Every structure is written in structure tokens, then in C-alpha cells.
Amino acid sequence: MTIWFRMVFCLASAAALSGQVKFPAYKRQVLPNGVVVDLVPKPGIPLVNFHIRIKGGLESEPAGQAGLVALTAQLLRRGTAKRTAEQFSSELDSLGGTFFAGSDEQSTFINGEFLKKDFDAGLDLLADAVLHPAFPEAEVSKALAQRVDAAKAAKDNPGIITTYYRAFFFGPKHPYGRPADELSYGRIRRADGPPDYDRTLEPQQ
């Protein structure tokens, strides 16, 4: 079976399945500041799941500072305007909730899950991390050191070759061709965070 035939077969199968997929009913609201809110109710499940996606991922990273967006996402829960990293973790644990932030090629995403009865407390915690991150110097330095160590250790993993193949394929002028490593992390400082972060995320009056 040739690669071309496999691709055609997969596309045909996907097209056939697309007609059978039924999405759950949901409500959409566009806020005055342009934020799109989709609500998917699931009666009978005592959980509330938040999924936030913000435009700006790997593609928005400055040349020479690969890894900046992923680092920023990691630091969202490492201290806010009114909570230290320890207070944030403690409150999250007391609610029995989950919080995860990461990034991909085109966006930064934040996921949170809380019990329905803790909706207000969970939303306050999530909003504080997204709208008012403090990026404490000590936490930035700690996270950078961890990522530098991980990048060095990754070189002992044969699977890392796929990362360098991608870099070779796209070239250094393309964001996909600039993999994060100990050198790029070594050039990142706290002041290099996204300059328009607060302006982009703060609700507009």
C-alpha cells in the first residue's frame, strides 16, 4: 500500500465519519472585548471544566528566545497579584481542583476543573492566574533552571532527533525551526515576558 493510497483512504474515512459525528448542544456568547464563550452543559455531572485558549503560541516567540511562551504558561500558577505560588497550590488542593497551562504552535491554553459547588471559588482562582500573573523573579529563575536541566538531559534521549529534524526542515528563520534548548532558555529574563499580556487579557470596559 503506497503512502498516497493510505492518505486517500484516511481522507475518505474521515469524510465518511464526519457525517456521523454529532456535537453536543452548546451556547455561544461573544463578550464586548471580543472573548468568545462556549457553554456546553452536561446535566448530572457535578463538575465544571474550564478551557481557555489565547492566541499566541510558539509562532509568536522572538528569534533567539525559543521556549518563552511555554515558560510563561508554566509560570501562570507560580504567583499572582494576590496569591503566592504556595497559596495558589494550597487553595487549589483545598478545592480538589485541577489547573494546567501549556502552549502549542498557535496558542496558549489553560485548563481547570472544579466541583460544581465550588464554581465561584474555582473561577476566582482561574481568573487570578490568567488575568493577574505576577511572574515572581524567584519563580522565573527556578523554572528556567529546571528547563535548562531538562534540555540538557534530553540530549541523552535518542528521540530528540525528531526535534532537530524539524529544525532542519523549517530552517532557523521559521519559528518551527528554532527548538528550545539550554542556550535559548539562557537568554530569557523576567523582563522578556509578553509585553502586551495584561492589555490583551484584561476585560475592557
Give the H and E element order: HEEEHHEEHHHHH
**What integer value in Å does the Rg equal?**
20 Å
Number of strands: 5
**According to CATH, what is the class?**
Alpha Beta
Helical content stands at 40-55%
Structural class from helices and strands?
Answer: alpha+beta
Between the first and last Cα atoms, what is the distance in angstroms?
59 Å
Count of the separate structural domains = 1
- What is the helix tally? 8
Q: Which regions have little confidence, pLDDT < 50, spanning 5+ residues?
A: 1-9, 195-205
Within CATH, the superfamily carries the name Metalloenzyme, LuxS/M16 peptidase-like
Question: Strand order of the main beta sheet, please?
Answer: 3-5-4
Q: Might you state the CATH topology name?
A: Cytochrome Bc1 Complex, Chain A, domain 1
Question: Roughly what is the average pLDDT, rounded to an integer?
Answer: 84
Please identify, by name, the CATH architecture.
2-Layer Sandwich
Q: Which overall shape is indicated by the principal axes computed on the Cα atoms?
A: globular
Structural description of this entry:
With 205 residues, the chain is α+β, with helices and mostly antiparallel strands. It has a single domain (23-193), classed as Cytochrome Bc1 Complex, Chain A, domain 1 (2-Layer Sandwich), CATH 3.30.830. 41% of the residues lie in helices and 16% in strands. The strands form two sheets. It has a three-stranded antiparallel β-sheet. A two-stranded antiparallel ribbon has the order 1-2. The longest helix has 18 residues, at 137-154. It starts with a helix and ends with a helix. 20% of the residues are buried.
